[in-house]
Amino acid sequence: MNLACLLERHARMQPLRAAIFEGWTLHATYGQWARRSAALAQRLQQAGLVPGDRVVLFMRNHPRYLELMWACWWAGLVIVPVNAKLHAREVEWIITNAQARWAFVTTDVASQPLHGLDRQVDVESAEADGLLHAQDTDALPPPLPRGPDDVAWLFYTSGTTGRPKGVMLTHRNLQTMGLCYFVDVDPVAADDAIVYGAPMSHGAGIYAIPHLMAGARHVVPASGGVDPAELFALGRTLGPLSTFAAPTIVKRLVDYAEEVGLGPQDAGLSFKTIVYGGAPMYRADIERALNVMGPRFVQIYGQGETPMVGTSLSRAHLADTAHPRYRDRIASVGVAQTPVQVRVADAAGHDLPTGSVGEVLVRGDSVMAGYWRDPEATAAALRDGWLFTGDVGCLDNDGFLTLKDRSKDLIISGGSNIYPREVEEVLLTAPGVAEVAVVGASDPEWGEVVVAFVVAQAGVELDIQSLDQHCLELIARFKRPKHYRLVDSLPKNNYGKVLKTALREQLQQTDAG
After folding, report:
1. Three-state DSSP class for residue 417
2. Is there a smaller number of Cβ atoms within 10 Å at the N or the C end of the chain?
3. 136: pLDDT confidence band, cut at 50, 70 and 90?
4. Nearest in space to 302 (alpha carbons), one of 312, 290, 289, 292
5. 298 Cβ neighbours under 8 A, 6+ residues apart
6. Nearest alpha carbon to residue 107 among 58, 73, 68
7. How confident is the model over 297-350, as pLDDT tens digits?
8. Does the pLDDT at position 159 exceed 60?
9. Burial letters for 108-143: b for 16+ Cβ neighbours within 10 Å, e otherwise?
10. Mean of the per-residue pLDDT values of the chain
């Protein structure tokens, strides 16, 4: 079934229901949203776009993002949401690779025309107003029929180790994600509201699907991003909000709540559920978040290749402090979500014993159709129906998955495997440490040695000798960093993930110097 049928359904049942807000201002009811999307769909068809054609969305978070997504699906097209922080040349490579025909942009993101398109539309222009303007009729044309295996969303990976790959997500993939949200992440009622602070080009935008399924409200902050004071205020006015956030965003929300003296009850007036993902949260950080903001967190693990669907660590798991393995569980990413199976295997795909570390494999209806125009990468990632994620982890007897690292981040020093995450967890418990990232550096004697990049809390002056002693007290000597770099900040991408590739490049440049 075409994803646009979800919007058509609610528009017919409750056309006057509030649907999209820009800040505190109502932008569209469900009826208006559907009529605008259907009108644009007709105009895209009139312009010669045919089912399966690709349309790029290169823009900041905007209330029209949702109207554009569903307009493309209404016309049977494929959306290509692009990271708003990419350089124009990187976007043009995606346009060429995706063979996209149209692009919708905001001029703060795309200040100049992008090459390789039939048409580029500023979503805040009179041109866009005209394209989205519905005719004066009550008729709502049905969405074009699409099959479950037709591509709906072409998601380009971050490309930190080369050119990004286009992940083909089908209508089946995205509907599977939407339905399992209610079972494994959070029940949604029509009176609920989701706020889009994190980029809508990624997981936050995908979570529009389950909230539309429930007929809930969709809130785009006036700032278009993450302003903790704005988000807390929006929640108090529009009702407790749900949101998707990378761990770095969660930390900003917790920092703000602590700074202005908000407790769990106060936080509950603004936030119903905060789903965190994109990277596992360190144990110390989630313990602090629960203490400051209360039991309103859920962790999910997934990839672009299995969007938001892999494992989940539920609100109940995070609240079960009496469990004898509670501290191990909150450092995990939870158990397999309902529509998928999760295994840990060796390089050949053979199951490893419980507790053994290997590559995480996922199988189910959420797993991508493959990589766009890249059969070799598809064959490497999809084998016998299983997605080889490239993540390294282990399963316990209860099915909880604990991630160690990306396979490419593993450090082999003197023949011993060292997982950076384990060292990072320890350093984060050292007094005065705000953030840390651990990478491997080439070494003629050991092959690789551990290097820790450490950010101090505001007003704190860290001492390397004290950090080293802290590590020696808590982990094996061979795992402790051989070098510490005290830095003001860590490089991150638009989704809040630390760019360890950039840190390794810094080390290489230093060695070359």
Report:
1. strand
2. C
3. low
4. 312
5. 185, 186, 273, 274, 275, 276, 312, 313, 314, 315, 318
6. 58
7. 999 999 999 999 999 999 999 999 999 999 999 999 999 999 999 999 998 999
8. no
9. ebbeeebebbeebbebeeeebeebbebeeeeebeeb
10. 93
**Domains defined along the chain, listed by start:** 1-9+28-146 (3.40.50.980), 410-512 (3.30.300.30)
Q: What angle do CA 103, 105, 108 make, to 5 degrees?
A: 155
DSSP 271-292: EEEEEE-SSPPPHHHHHHHHHH
**With the CA atoms of 210, 211, 215 and 220 taken in that order, what torsion angle do they form, in degrees rounded to the nearest 10?**
-150
Instruction: Give the span between the Cα atoms of 123 and 59, in whole angstroms.
Output: 9
pLDDT in the model for residue 424: 92
The two tokens of residue 31 are 């009826």
CA angle 116, 118, 122 (to 5 degrees): 95
**Percent composition of the chain: helix, strand, coil (DSSP 3-state, to 5):** 35, 25, 40
At a CB cut-off of 8 Å and minimum separation 6, what does 317 contact? 329, 330, 334
Q: pLDDT tens for residues 50-101? A: 999 999 999 999 999 999 999 999 999 999 999 888 888 889 999 999 999 9
Q: Are 372 and 168 in contact (CB under 8 A)?
A: yes
